[in-house]
Amino acid sequence: MLKSKMKWDFTYSSDSANRQELINELLEQRGLHTEEERNRFLHPALADLHDPFLINGMRKAVNRVKEAIHYGEPILIFGDYDADGVSSTALMMECLRSLGAECDFYIPNRFTEGYGPNENAFRWASAQGYTLIITVDNGIAAVEEAKVAKELGIDLIITDHHEVQNELPEAFAILHPKTSLQYPFQELAGVGVAFKFAHALLEEKPVHLLDLVAIGTVADLVPLEDENRILVSFGLEAITKTRRPGLRQLKNLNSIDGDVDEEAVGFMIGPRMNAVGRLQDASPAVDLLLTGDEEEAQELAGFVQELNKERQKIVQEIADEAEALLGEDVKDEVIVVAREGWNAGVLGIVASKLVRKFDRPAIVLTIDKEKGQAKGSARSIDAYDMFENCMEHRELFLHFGGHSQAAGMTLAEDNIISLREELSRLAREKLSPEDYGQSLPVTMSLDLSEVSLQQIEFVNQLRPFGMANPKPYFHVRSKAKELRLIGSKKNHMKVTLEQNGSRLDAIAFGQGDAYHSIAPQSPIDMVGQLSINEWNGTRKPQMMVEDIAVKEWQLFDWRGTKHLQKSLPSFQKDEAACVTFGLQTEGPGELPVIGFNDSRVKDYSTLILLDLPERLEDLHVLLGEVSPERIYAVYSLRDDAFMQTLPSREHFKYFYGMLKKKKTFDLEKDSALLARHKGWKVDSIKFICNVFFDLGFVTIKDGQLFMNTQPEQKSLTESRTFQTRQEQMEVEKVLYYSTYKELKDWMETRLQITGAEVKEEIGYGL
Predict the structure, then answer these.
(1) Are residues 301 and 233 in the same domain?
(2) What's the CATH code of the domain at 379?
(3) Is the pLDDT of residue 690 over 60?
(4) Strands 474-486 and 444-445
(5) Which part of the chain is the DHHA1 domain (predicted)?
(6) Residue 642 located in a structural domain
(7) How much is the pLDDT for 547?
(8) Mean pLDDT, range 291-313, rounded to an integer
């Protein structure tokens, strides 16, 4: 047995998986019930974008910007340092420049200024002569800063998408879908809101800006439905064909060829845009997107690439330190971990790592001792709304903002403990134990024969995948034709499944630790995403594995191994024990060695059989008492009784007749002579002598065998020596010389775990 890391949530109940049923199921799961809804989803169209003037304040904001352009009034774009903010800033700059505006941008430094508008920045802008500031991807929480802008005579236009807090800033105009009840779609990213503003300003859809929209929208993890789906679909095409020197250089550096999909943006382009602002001032990322010079673009792309490598290194160092601070046993329902000197720019990524490792919300803070403050980021699990729960204790924060699953914050150092206690208390009140485990939604279970290129090509019509449009996960079950570790560090696993002539290659990245927990003959359950592997002109389906399980007990057939210490995987404390039938006293490593009839044997999920029993009944008794997940058969032969011929009845008859005539028999000399004469083995002769001795037919004294007069008539099978040899032969036949299937079947009939129970578990939820 190998337990899955996540809870598999089967969302499909049919036994069949034909193409049309799969299509209908996937569309139904996305809430698409009518033909019109489905066509709009499968065939996104720019014509379906909503009128930007449905957003409150849009007409007022457009008029103010056009007035500034007409009078040559300078405009400052106030951006943000993440990928959404950077792409929003570049988009608004390009839009305003195309209208002839005198404009520039300002992105606050994450480390010295923090997120969003701040008073010093606004006072600097006023000193530079700016009387109009447009925020992008920030500002909805800037209540005090809006007052400062008004005092300075600055008109402030806020464009944002973050959660609206209790009080709105007193700005010249606020462009925010969630403050516009008449606007049909509430989930635009910051760059999406900026795009709507640009659409209104330009009086036509700015399709030349769609590549920027796709970067910010995918990177910010907003729901990819309605307008976001349209913007990203066309934006990915724009990135594929982009003429921006900066994007082309970044694609080249990361070997992004052909059609660009959401994964290339989410895992390659977006993180690199983010990396700049995480480690320093984010302005070079904006410059990379705006530059028209190839040489500058090459230099900036290389710089961004190196910063991302440095960011990855810093993230791992902080994650290791955070895990060390938390220890193995994390008891708090919400993790709040803090240390002086951590880089504030990467704490959101570290928090995400902690969420995945410990299956609970996490807040990671860096402490500024001089200010007596802590600043950092939060990430959450699906069942815990971080924004909502933090807002219940808004008094603990100096600054706070974000979404249900991600947030940023600054608080007094003295409030860290209170924050941990209060958020954990709320989690205890609102969550059940099941809410903490990661859930893996499974769209459908498929036989290998049902996995086809046509199925996968349809699934790909649902792209771009992301929030609210997740990539479907499929479940398959089969025995492995091949199972091997791959990668330079052997930390990935490749499995070739085979079932009734159908084959499927499955790649499990980062799951090499499961390799030693899967017996070669065990049926494997896998959940993963289907894709098409193209190599040398050949296209075939493959699965990218998300989670693995073996639903039944497993037998690891290592009989006769001489490398036990090296082969055994590492076990958790109290998970495994070595079982002996009397001959072995030491096991591999520090694993406990216990007798087969020890009551503690029931406490272990993994049993390692060190030696063979003298009788099958001993193992029978053991198996009847336990319910293990794994059994390792690692025993070797002592004496090869099974391969030795048991003397026949004629052998015994001849020897008895000879002894009757000779009266005595020298065990040393006469055994050798008889062996040469009859072609018998000396061991067989000694065995016959011991059997006769057991039965009382002879006595043995000083190496001489004497016939007893008038012995009691007995059968050969009454001899303990004869019985022991027969039992040993049967033990070796059943437990050593059997095939894997024969041995597993024999054990399975004697185990408490039954096939019926296993099948019921596998079928649950299907």
Answers:
(1) yes
(2) 3.10.310.30
(3) yes
(4) parallel
(5) 334-427
(6) no
(7) 96
(8) 97
Same domain membership, residue 560 and residue 529: no
pLDDT tens, position by position, 447-471: 998 899 988 998 999 999 999 999 9
pLDDT score for 273: 97
pTM: predicted TM-score of the whole model, two decimal places: 0.79
The helix/strand/coil state of 180 is coil
How far apart, in whole angstroms, are the C-alpha atoms of residue 405 and residue 122? 30
Which residue shows structure tokens 């290998």?
448
Prior bond of 464 cis (ω within 30°): yes
For the record, the structure tokens of 517 come out as 């927990």
Given a cut of 50, whether residue 387 has pLDDT beyond it is yes
Task: Give bridge partners of residue 664 from the DSSP assignment.
Answer: 706
Domain end: 428, 463, 479, which one? 428
- Residue 314 included in any domain: no
Continuous segment of H or E residues that includes residue 527: strand 523-535
CB 679 within 8 A of CB 654: no
- Assign 766 a pLDDT band (cuts: 50, 70, 90): very low
Instruction: Determine the average pLDDT of the residues in 630-643.
Output: 81
The alpha carbon of 123 is separated from its chain's Cα centroid by a whole number of angstroms, namely 47
- pLDDT score, position 542: 96
Whether 225 and 89 map to the same domain: the answer is yes
The whole-angstrom separation of Cα 380 and Cα 355 is: 7
Q: Is the separation of the CB atoms in 158 and 169 below 8 Å?
A: yes
Tokens 């900066």 correspond to 246
pLDDT reported for residue 526: 96
> Average pLDDT of 250-262?
96
DSSP-assigned states of every residue in 21-73: HHHHHHHHHTT--SHHHHHHHHS--GGGSPPGGGSTTHHHHHHHHHHHHHTT-
**Are 134 and 270 part of one and the same domain?**
yes
Q: Is the pLDDT of residue 761 over 60?
A: no
* Other residues' Cβ atoms within 10 Å of the Cβ of residue 585: 9
Clarify whether residues 159 and 213 are in a common domain: yes
Q: How many domains does the chain have?
A: 5
Same domain (yes/no): 509, 568: no
What is the phi/psi pair of residue 241, to 5°?
Answer: -100, 10
CA–CA gap between residue 746 and residue 725 (Å, rounded): 21
Query: Do 416 and 431 meet the contact criterion of CB atoms below 8 Å apart?
Result: no
Q: Residue 706 above 70 pLDDT?
A: yes
CATH number, domain containing residue 12: 2.40.50.460
Question: Which residues constitute the domain of residue 685?
Answer: 649-728
**Residues 681 and 566 placed together within one structural domain of the fold:** no
